[in-house]
Amino acid sequence: MPIAVYVLGLAVFAQGTSEFMLSGLVSGIAADLDVPLSAAGLLTSAFAVGMVVGAPLMALSSRTWPRRRALLLFLAVFVVVHVVGALTPSYGVLLATRFVGALANAGFWAVALTTAVSMVPDRLKGRATAVVVGGVTIACVVGVPAGAVLGERWGWRSAFWAVAIVSLPAVLAVLRSIPGGRGTDTGAAPVPVRDELRALTGPRLRPVLLTMALVQGATFCTFSYLEPLLTRETGLGAGWVPVSLALFGAGSFAGVTVAGRFADARPVAVVATGMTALALGWAALALAAGRPALALALIPLLGMLAFGTGTALITRVLGLASGAPTLAGAFSTTAFNLGATVGPWAGGLALDAGFGYRAPVWVSALLMVLALLVAATTAKGRRSRAGERRPSAVQRSARGRL
What we know:
By secondary structure, the chain is mainly alpha-helical. It is built from 16 helices and no strands. Helix 6 runs antiparallel to helix 7 and helix 9 packs antiparallel against helix 15 (359-389).
């Protein structure tokens, strides 16, 4: 595996820490800025909205730029907005910095995913994807719990400062390791945007992208409100929040690693198994939330299933979207973060409706049921179309006589 692929994973680690760390900081942000808990949770949604909008927009804007320049620009913007976020006393400004930071993160993701898979042979594309996504899971293991500890001891702003500082080594690593060429570095003319969009909006990819959005919506719905669930429903002290986040991250890392090994060979089986287990797992966590030992045991398992399934879905999209070398990573990022937008929003609605702190977990289970229905309907339609194309025994016999 080229060292540049691991460098991209390092940069994603810094950005992933920012994306996920609010799950351990929402109560502190809400108290400091005098806003409701659901409003603090919407900071995660704002980041996700920026990712949804920014992924295709930034990918299109930077498609003719040298890769290294694009990645460095996105990282620089990311650092600046975190410094502003750490300094501002305004919820509105903080919300805006989350959105702008997400635009930069989305651009980085879109370029990083296509860059990583273009540098390896087909048999290693799943592993290259897993290395890049693995940066997020390491962020869950190390960065997010560390952010929660910083927030507990020195306030939530210290976590924003830490993200800005940790991003600086990633800037240097990208500068030294990433090729500076344009596009896909193949020397061929870039694929027209219209052709890429046609490939990405075809009947094979639409249901996969929708399924990815639903799976990630389920993940972020619970993850965004994990801290109040554990401290107010499970009965654990605030010191258990970083531990729980680390457990989730450790499970996520294991899931990405396993998916990277098997997603290339058996993507459909990995996705189907993971989705079914997630539907059952989120329901189990909702039922077991009042039992600390059982809840803590389920958290790493759900992290493994969520990110393992997500990695397999990204690999599936990149494999099916060979006709869209620039926008495939962007659409994967958009679908991923569309779920991250809808999930916390839906969980916040359930909380505001007075259904209790377990409500977001039940919403996660419902989203997984919807994802399974989409997958089942798609598979049924595919089999039906295949049956219509396959000649019957009478037709084969008539052709033989002719």
